[in-house]
Amino acid sequence: MHPVRKQRLMIVIFIVVFSSIAVGLMAYALRENINLFYPPSKIAAGDVPHNTRIRAGGCVKPGSVERASDSLEIRFLITDGTADVKVNFNGILPDLFAEGEAAVINGIVTETGEINASEVLAKHDENYTPPEVAEAMKDKGEHQKTCEGLKYGA
Amino acid sequence: MAWQWFHRLGSPRWFYEKTTAWMPWLAALSIALLLTGAVWGLAFAPADFKQGNSYRIIYIHVPAAFLALAGYYIMAISGAVGLIWKMKLPFMVMKSAAPIGALLTFVSLVTGSIWGKPTWGTWWEWDARITSMLILFFLYLGMIALQQAFTHRDTSDKASAVLALVGMVNIPIIYKSVDWWNTLHQPATIKFTSKSTIDPSMLYPLLIMVIGFYAFYALVLLLNTRVEILRRESRTQWVSDLISATNKRA
After folding, report:
1. What 3-state DSSP class applies to B105?
2. Which pLDDT value is given to residue A149?
3. What is the pLDDT of residue B4?
4. Cβ proximity of A1 and B84 under 8 Å
5. Cα separations in angstroms, B77 against B5, B70, B82, B163, B176
6. ipTM, 2 decimals?
7. What residues does each domain of chain A span?
8. In this complex, is the C-beta atom of A25 within 8 Å of any C-beta atom belonging to chain B?
């Protein structure tokens, strides 16, 4: 390679490497802010400010959903495997909201450590399965791995 | 000697004449793949047991997002080659790649938003994946704007090549954002190191769509580049020969 071209190649590599380092350091410094939501263990540990609007995310604990018979009011627990946090919500849930599925909650943490939610979003997983295959897996007891493999606390 | 083929590749005329024969084949291939993939995915692939039919937007969303990212690498690497070797052709490729990439990024943002409403329950959320994809869209728009910002073609080529190189850092961020941070967007389904978490009956049409998008991308990039070649070389002898030959045939 011609020395002039080699020098220009070095400049190009320099641009790529140093812009990557700069952006990488920025992302590292802002890592807590880039996270969309707090995991339940952080809320339970008191690391999350009370009485301000935050987002929490975790798996809806199977068997914890209580619905009111005369209104849209609903209570459930979200978990990340380490801690559970109680969520109160009065509104319309997305279709994919279900026990054993992840959800993202927009709301206010009260003094008692519960979340009064103003919005509940369903965070669906990356698995796509035809209904027949899902049925077959359920029969074999393979598909009930709900709330497993959550790393939100990490 | 070893670099001869490389320098020949840098000749716009050689490139234009070489690719003329490819165009109909590439067009036929991409139409065949896109039609097969779309009909298979939208009509014959099974519905998802949780999302029902709404998951089928994956057959547009994922290939568009793949090509939006891959297209950025194509643009940035051609910019780097143009800077290092001072060749004309790579800069033409870089300029031609910007509007296609912008359009693909826009398509993946819009389809993602349409998909988000029935599944997540929201059109838009400022999570890391969606926000970094929006930044990619603005980078592409910046490339298009920067090309127009200078009167000298050399200056605008160099400046936009530097912008393309600096913006390249965003691509791995987009790709890994769902693993590095807590996001609403789910992690990758098609995995290169382990088994993909999608049933084979749904995966095959998706792969056909991805290959079809690659072929279509190549087709559009070549079309754009060939127009750019004619525009920038319009004063040369071979272009006027080409035009008079076309006029004679007509």
Report:
1. helix
2. 57
3. 75
4. no
5. 18, 11, 8, 12, 21
6. 0.86
7. 3-33, 36-139
8. no
Give the tens place of pLDDT for each residue, B126-170.
989 999 999 999 999 999 999 999 989 999 999 999 999 999 999
Cα–Cα distance measured from residue A55 to residue A105, given in angstroms and rounded to the nearest whole number: 5
The pair of three-digit structure tokens given for residue B129, joined into one six-digit string: 């994946």
3-state helix, strand, coil in chain A (%, to 5): 30, 30, 45
Amino acid letter, A4: V
A73: which strand partners? A90
CB contact (8 A) between residue B121 and residue A127: no
Residues constituting chain B: 250
Which residue out of B3, B44, B50 would a mutagenesis test of the A interface target, given it has the greatest number of A Cβ atoms within 10 Å?
A: B50
* 3-state class (DSSP) for residue B186: coil
What's the rounded mean pLDDT across residues A51-68? 89
Question: Does B54 score more than 60 pLDDT?
Answer: yes
Tell me whether A89 touches chain B (CB under 8 Å). no
Among B105, B168, B173, B177, smallest CA distance to B137 is for B105
Task: Please state which architecture CATH assigns to domain A36-139.
Answer: Beta Barrel (2.40)
